[in-house]
Amino acid sequence: MSRSPSPSPGNGSPPEQQKAGSSGAVLVLLGALCFSTSGTAQAFAPEGATPYVIGALRMQVAALALFAWCACRGRLPRLGEWPLRWVLPAALGLVAFQICFFKGVQLAGVAVGTVVAIGFSPLVAALLAWAVLGERPALLWYPSTALALAGLVCLNLGEGTSADWQRLVLPLAAGAGYACYFVFSKPLGVRFTPDSVMLMLCGLSGTLLLPMLLLFPVGWLASTAGAGTALYLGVVTAALAFSLTTAGLARTPAATAATLALAEPLAAACWGILLLGEDVSTADCCGIGLLVLGVALLAFARPRTN
Known about the structure:
This protein has 14 helices and 2 strands. The chain is mainly α. It has one domain. The chain has a two-stranded antiparallel ribbon with strand order 1-2. Helix 1 runs parallel beside helix 13 (263-274) and helix 5 (110-132) runs antiparallel to helix 6 (141-154). The longest helix is centred in the last third of the chain and has 26 residues, at 224-249. 48% of the residues are buried.
């Protein structure tokens, strides 16, 4: 997601700045909490709902909600103005995230799968931003990466089988896809409004995911629970979550916002353990803690530009 610069010291009085910063932090936190319920919502989907259809519907419903929002505000994007060299990789990153994340949390569990995916994405984003945008990783990126890798090792200290490692492949791939979306959408945020950027990306990724509705069963959508799950995932965990976070970033320092965003994997882990009764071992708890600590350290790092 694109980041808006923080207000300059000369803009507004100190009380106004404190009020804006406080409201921005609340918006970022609310957005993270909306994101965090994605895996849990899938777990409550009716029988027959596949992760691939759920991921596709999430983008398609989000695109419809954002289309209605942008239409009301007169911000519908004009296709000819959008540079494909940024739009296409960002949309493909979202596609990869939808496919890998929901299947990944189904295999690894909501707690572990979400923490791995969201915790891994900032590390990949740092490398990708270096290669694509010329932003060199800050010095704190190196110890942060070491902590994250140690966390991944701890997550696989259970039985020590190859299956333990295989359960993290899809969450890791989801994290890489999210990193692609983040890095390639950043230049778009400079030229276009955040809601129109998300409309374009959700619309394109939702279109690319249309074959999922033909390859996998969708009959479960006819039920009240099925329709409710699709609407919740699209409106709350995508359209609303992206909008809240983007609005909060405009009023909150980037480092603060990145730290607040850690509420997403932490809350997702809590939903998985408390609501779904997932069994989390001591090694899993240590791995989750190391991953979160690594990302928290990275949140305070400032990238160096070439």
